[in-house]
Amino acid sequence: MKIKDLIFGKKIAPDSGGAKHYAESVQNWLPVSDIRDGVIITKDGRFVKLLEVLPVNFYLKSAMEQQNIIYYFSSYLKIAPDRLQFLAVTQKADIDAYISRMWRIYDAEENESCRGMIADNIAEVEYLADREALTRRFFIALQYEPRMKLRGNTIEGIIQRLNEEADTARNYLDLCGLETLQPEYSDIFLGETLYELLNRKTAHVAKLPLQVFSMVGEV
Predict the structure, then answer these.
(1) pLDDT digits (tens, 9 = 90+) for 83-96
(2) In which domain, by residue range, is 100 found?
(3) What are the start-end ranges of the H helices in 9-150?
(4) What pTM value is reported for the model?
């Protein structure tokens, strides 16, 4: 079984009436049917490319830099796909790594006064994370449109064209001084991102294990 089959489901036995998914299963309501070569394929037949953009503070830029950002971004919008979405996702800050490090320092500290201060710091960070600390992720979603010219009228051709559109977006965003993430394994990146977007509360306390893809492969 592949990880994508586990997440998105696959056809079950023919004697089940031809249903694609079990009733009331996660796969039954999940709008995604597959992820291929960094492109999301939805159940209603759409092809979507998702880019994550690292933010910058526009107001900390010089007047010249601000003008360049506006110019190049407006230039990109003139050639961008008609169906273009900008997504901002707000989540609670992930402090697990920091807290674990502070507890290791706490255990190694011999001075009781220092240990008390470290414990107070941990408690304060946890308090702020629960009530105030937030992280934001920014995405650009590109969707395949019939007007896009393809080298071949196939799914592979659509995926190739969307990846070319993503490269064009990256080039213009680079001129704006914005960096877009280019993960080594795009399908894994999308799987993890969808997990976090669809399970925003659960993902904060239960991360998708990095080894889950190899584990399912072995199964």
Answers:
(1) 889 988 877 766 77
(2) 94-132
(3) 26-29, 63-79, 96-108, 112-131
(4) 0.63
Shared domain for 201 and 111, answered yes or no, is: no
**CA-CA distance, 35 to 146, in Å (whole number)?**
20
The per-residue pLDDT for range 32-54, each reduced to its tens digit, is 888 888 888 888 888 999 899 98
Q: Are residues 68 and 171 in the same domain?
A: yes
Element (H, E) at 86: strand 84-92
Q: Are 103 and 63 members of one domain? A: no
Rounded CA separation 70/32 (Å):
34
Would you say 67 and 101 are in contact if contact means Cβ atoms under 8 Å apart?
no
pLDDT grade for 168, boundaries at 50, 70 and 90: very high
Q: Are residues 70 and 122 in the same domain?
A: no
Do residues 114 and 186 share a domain? no
* C-alpha pair distances (Å), 34 with each of 52, 155, 164, 187: 19, 12, 20, 10
- The helix (H) or strand (E) run that includes residue 36 is strand 32-36
